[in-house]
Amino acid sequence: MEWLDSFWSTYSTLVLSTGTNVLLALSIYITLACGLLSVANAGFMAIGAYSAALLTLHTGTPLTLALILGAIAAAMMALLIGVPTLRLSGVYLAMATLAFGEVVRILILNAEDLTGGALGLNGIPQLGGLLEVMISVTLALYIFLRLAHSQVGRSMTAISQDEIATELMGLNVRAYKLFCFVVGAALAGLAGALNAHFTFFISPNEYGFERAVEILAMGVIGGVSSPWGAVLGGSLITALPELLRGMGRYRPLINGAILIIIILYSPKGLWDGLRSVLRRTRG
Amino acid sequence: MLAQQIINGLSLGGVYALFALGFTLIFGVLSIINLAHGAIFMIGAYAALHAVLVFHFALLPAIFVAIVITGVAGWILDKFIFAPLRARRAPHLAPMIATIGVAICLTSLAEGYFGSENLRFPPDILPSSTLSLAGVQVNWLDLKIILLVLLLMGFMLWVIRDSRTGRALRSVAESPKAAALLGANVEGLFLATSVIASILGGVAGVLIALYTNAVFPNMGQPMLHKGIAVVIIGGMGDVRGALIGGFFLGFAEVLTIAYIGSSMRDAVAFGLLFSVLLVRPAGLFGHAPQRRV
Amino acid sequence: MLKLSSLSKDFGALRVLDNLDLAIPTRGIFGLIGPNGAGKTTIFNLITGLLPPSSGSIEFLGERLNGLPPFMITRRGIARTFQNIRLFKDMTAEENVLVAMGDLSKYHTLKALLPGGYRDDENSQRKSARELLSRVGLSAKAHQPAAFLSYGEQRRLELARALATRPKLLLLDEPAAGMNAAEKQQLMEEIEKLEASGLSIVLIEHDMRFVMGICAEIAVLNFGRWIAQGSPTEIRAHPKVIEAYLGNNDTGDT
Lengths: 283, 293, 254
Fold this sequence. Notes:
The structure holds 3 protein chains of 3 kinds. Chain A contains 13 helices and no strands. Chain A is mostly helical. Chain A has one domain (about 10-235). In chain A, helix 1 (about 1-30) packs antiparallel against helix 9 (about 175-195), helix 2 packs parallel to helix 4 (about 90-110) and helix 6 (about 130-150) runs antiparallel to helix 9 (about 175-195). Chain A starts with a helix and ends with a helix. Helices cover about 75% and strands about 5% of the residues of chain B. Chain B is built from 11 helices and 2 strands; from the N terminus they run H-H-H-H-E-E-H-H-H-H-H-H-H. Chain B has helices spanning about 1-30, 35-55, 60-85, 95-115, 140-160, 165-175, 175-180, 185-210, 220-235, 240-260, 265-280, and strands spanning about 130-135, 135-140. In chain B, a hairpin with a 2-residue loop joins strand 1 and strand 2 (about 135-140). The model of chain B has no long low-confidence stretch (mean pLDDT about 85). Chain C has a 6-stranded mixed β-sheet with strand order 6-7-8-3-9-10, sandwiched between helices. Chain C has a 4-stranded antiparallel β-sheet with strand order 2-1-4-5, covered by helices on one side. The radius of gyration of chain C is 19 Å and the shape is globular. Classes of the chains: A mainly alpha, B mainly alpha, C alpha/beta.
């Protein structure tokens, strides 16, 4: 079992990060699947991370409870801003949610006494996390897969194709959208809370623009046809920097180029793209 | 002192407005959130700087070089990225991700070629003379910036409001399908919009580089954030909104730095942003798209 | 059954509907005709809650509909089809109908999370969906994406979908548009059968023979105002109606 220990000591963060990135990818999958172009998840991640970290740091809350409370904090914020902003649609919603994420970051930056401001929060209790990450991912995937194949999934697809026609079928579209938005936020908050507890240190810059865009990339690469796409998207985005490690100076360039190529050739997501390639080769 | 702040507000606000205008044009007409706009802004600055440092151009020709280079960048952006994605009926956010890829590539190329240190324009290129205006010493540089900005804006407003191209642009922004049926050259208009928007971003880049006397590979990022804030406050997809929002933000920042302290600068912008989001998410002049019944 | 009282709708300075009163009876197919732009589809949009009235009220089965969101109006029992088909193009015919049965009060989300939790509900819903599809003659196409159906088939799917919401009142917006004579004949019979089974029907159509053929009563709208109301015979001979139509190119099928 020695190789397992040495594997773990080198790659533990990578494995855990893959887990939280899959959660983040799922969090944006559920909003995209409903037709909501929401890019706010980095902000929700920050809320979850800071809430949970502050709880374990200052009040010794057990990890599981802190995780749940972090997710709830994010969900409540989603409820607050969801009601006015979900009236927007399309790229307008994307802009508004992008801005919201930035606002959260700035708020955290400026609430120095509470959050440590730009210096971040240090010394977060290392309460491990592999078990919690695995449970979270498994649970989330299971729930989403069940929902996707049920009436709920069908309704979400309908909403993403034509909101008005769907509403006229007797479905409360506003409630569905809010539901997806809040669930996505809770999941992102959970991911943030988990992430905070295996990286010792969090700072507002981790949850800014770059993170929002990274999460979005996971969502678009994964596509909305299935929750498995999110697993693919999340894993790929985590693995890419590692795979490119040998490229030195050219890393960001290749990273950017890969992103462009994937989008140009599989605009609906890699999961969908791979499936159609498989279909074609089967003749 | 106040007069100096007004001048500062006008120049900074003017540059923000130019940048935001480019951003909102692509947003309004192509429905794309162009996250490469900041990178193109940066390319404009580097292009002008390079022209001055290596080819010893004077300032105005250098700005012209920036215009050409960023215009080409805008052309490439539409031709090779936006148009193919349109043809493939890509989902709404796909172009946005592609622009992220573009931004990453451009930034890393700039860093590779020019290095990551802060570069400056040579001092003799910057007009250092001041003018006495209403009893205040005003920097010629600031004045030139303001003039150039006003000129460009006036031109843009004329194009968009009164010219045939402008009307075609507005009809495409409303409904590309309807505009195509009416005979508008939709693809050509998209291409032209991308080029014009990039030029605006590039010019803004040069002007900020002159104003702050700093050129560095990541300069596009904070600008992009500001651009987004302006467009949301002023109204998404609305030209007046971008202009008024830009000046508004410029003034707000300048006055905050002068009277409150520079650390609160970003907080002010984003505080405004948050309030707008909660109360009127479409922005001051924006109109959220109507539900199609 | 459905009552419009002093209903008006303005779009900015333009008054599209002007103080309309109308009482739609429970029995008999009711026709709504008028030249293009008269405001007929706007009336449907107001009834289904997609647009708010500028003034006046709409009552259905004695209860006010004003201000209710569209999904509640559908749940009260009003369904509609659209002038330009609004099917879910990427979903199969069966799935299109299933969405309309998606009123979650029928199956519990929490139960859905348990393995096998929704299998029974799904199966019974699919059965009902297939019954509806066979009613409109689309059983063979149940698993085809809606985009692959012919125009006439798509119209029939729209009808099936509207029926899936179990309405008491069905609003049909130009159901015969783009159909050939044989299809129109079939549609007329289908609509009459629906009415006979207890469904109230209001339809907007431009094809005069179609309208005169199945409607018991017709109201004529022009520039947002009623210009005539009565039986097909009365309407056919009504001077104002003739004038309104001769003034446009829109003389329906000859």
